[in-house]
């Protein structure tokens, strides 16, 4: 099947592409970003949950060569109809939340991308696995580590892959900082700061409903600072401390955190200090410091363009549509067993959930929690 990518490499100058980007991308193991026709296998994906982010992924997938949107799972017939028309989805690839187990009889769908509210991921992902289809699941993968592990186990048992929608793990500026850190260019890593937040608007949205969100800002946006601390420092934390502050208890009910600050300690002695909030805009910043240099990124995890610099100068990397690149890479991971620089598998999701469980415990007890 042939496809072209119209907007994939937007906002990148031809000279930068020719002079610096292609060799670096090659080194980082990123995909062929040229307009060359593609005749290889294509991952055929159904999206479950046709909301804001599902729509963004569907639009981004228009420019994929190795992945294609072929099906939908939704509880809203009018949305299904609109998506069928927009993306040319045949009736036989449309399901609702009651009948999607029948997807097991559909040979034209390889994977289901679960993009529903957090609390639904666990049961939906397990049903998809039981139907014999690969699972891509949005972050947070589940509400806690126990649920996450059950998803990993179910996918293993069904012999399907489980990936988490960690789009930053493919983002070129991010990968360049990781490459520099691995090459020792920052020296001994000592400190990471991750600031992630936005102002949560509508008080009636599912993100502010403990039942559906499983928590508050940490589940939704603070997870980027946590995950970022791990891939930027390149180690697994051994302890965590955390504090919660709430300025609007009316809007942020019990169990829905408005702002959490957390600190992580790593085996090498490096520390991370992170802020997760639903009450501030323009909070999207990473800072990594070592004894020979630093990297800072702002924005660091938003949809981009991601910008950053190090002690050596600007990070000149291509600006990509994160979700297009993510789906291209996930196609290679699922169809060809490609190993990404930073894992996106279920085990990686569970690692974050274990630390999030500990962060909530630290908030509750005021204690420093040791991580196994
Ligand atoms: P959304 O509210 O825009 O969409 C959620 C969709 O789920 C809607 O279409 C809704 O109809 C459907 N749904 C199914 N069952 C539902 C139920 N019982 N209650 C409420 N809605 C139900 O939310 P979103 O922003 O698309 O977020 C969906 C998931 O994607 C979340 O897990 C979120 O964390 C994740 N997300 C990830 C990113 C990212 O950059 N990776 C960005 C945004 C959202």
From TrEMBL:
* Cross-referenced SUPFAM superfamilies: Glyceraldehyde-3-phosphate dehydrogenase-like, C-terminal domain, NAD(P)-binding Rossmann-fold domains
Name all Gfo/Idh/MocA-like oxidoreductase N-terminal domain ranges.
Answer: 43-166
Source organism's superkingdom?
Bacteria
What InterPro entries does this protein's entry cite? Gfo/Idh/MocA-like_OxRdtase_N, Gfo/Idh/MocA_domain, GFO_IDH_MocA-like_dom, Glc-Fru_OxRdtase_bac, NAD(P)-bd_dom_sf, TAT_signal
Does the keyword Phosphoprotein feature in the UniProt annotation?
no
Chain ranges of the GFO/IDH/MocA-like oxidoreductase domain:
176-295
Q: Enumerate the UniProt keywords alphabetically.
A: Oxidoreductase
Q: Which GO terms describe its molecular function?
A: nucleotide binding; oxidoreductase activity
| Recorded coiled-coil stretches | none
Say yes or no: keyword Oxidoreductase present. Answer: yes
- What family is this? Belongs to the Gfo/Idh/MocA family.
Q: What is the recorded name of this protein?
A: Gfo/Idh/MocA family oxidoreductase
């Amino acid at each position: 099947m042939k496809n072209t990518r119209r907007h994939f490499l937007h906002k990148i100058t031809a000279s930068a592409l020719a002079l610096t980007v292609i060799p670096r991308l090659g080194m980082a193991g990123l995909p062929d970003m040229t307009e060359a026709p593609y005749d290889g296998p294509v991952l055929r994906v159904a999206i479950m949950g046709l909301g804001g982010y599902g729509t963004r992924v569907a639009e981004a997938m228009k420019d994929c060569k190795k992945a294609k949107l072929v099906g939908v799972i939704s509880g809203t017939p009018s949305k299904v109809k609109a998506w069928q028309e927009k993306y040319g989805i045949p009736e036989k690839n449309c399901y609702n939340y009651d009948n999607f187990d029948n997807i097991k009889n559909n040979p034209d769908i390889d994977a289901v991308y679960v993009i529903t509210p957090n609390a639904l991921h666990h049961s939906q992902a397990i049903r998809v696995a039981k139907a014999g289809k690969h699972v891509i699941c949005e972050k947070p993968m589940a509400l806690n580590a126990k649920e996450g592990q059950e998803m990993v186990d179910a996918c293993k048992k069904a012999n399907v892959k489980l990936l988490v929608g960690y789009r930053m793990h493919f983002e070129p500026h991010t990968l360049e900082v990781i490459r520099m850190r691995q090459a020792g260019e920052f020296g001994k890593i000592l400190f990471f700061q991750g600031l992630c937040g936005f102002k949560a608007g509508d008080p009636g949205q599912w993100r502010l409903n403990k039942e559906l969100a499983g928590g508050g800002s940490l589940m939704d946006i603070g997870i980027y600072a946590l995950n970022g601390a791990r891939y930027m420092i390149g180690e697994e934390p051994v302890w965590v401390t955390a504090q919660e502050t709430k300025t609007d208890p009316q809007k942020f009910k019990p169990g829905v955190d408005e702002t959490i600050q957390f600190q992580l300690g790593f085996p090498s002695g490096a520390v991370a200090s992170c802020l997760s909030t639903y009450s501030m805009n323009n909070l999207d910043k990473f800072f990594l410091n070592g004894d020979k240099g630093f990297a800072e990124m702002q924005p660091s995890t938003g949809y981009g363009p991601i910008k950053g610099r190090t002690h050596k100068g600007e990070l000149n990397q291509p600006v990509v549509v994160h979700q297009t690149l993510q789906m291209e890479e996930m196609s290679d991971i699922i169809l060809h067993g490609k190993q990404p620089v930073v894992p996106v598998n279920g085990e990686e999701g569970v690692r974050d959930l274990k630390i999030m469980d500990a962060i909530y415990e630290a908030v509750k007890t005021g204690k420093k929690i040791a991580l196994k």
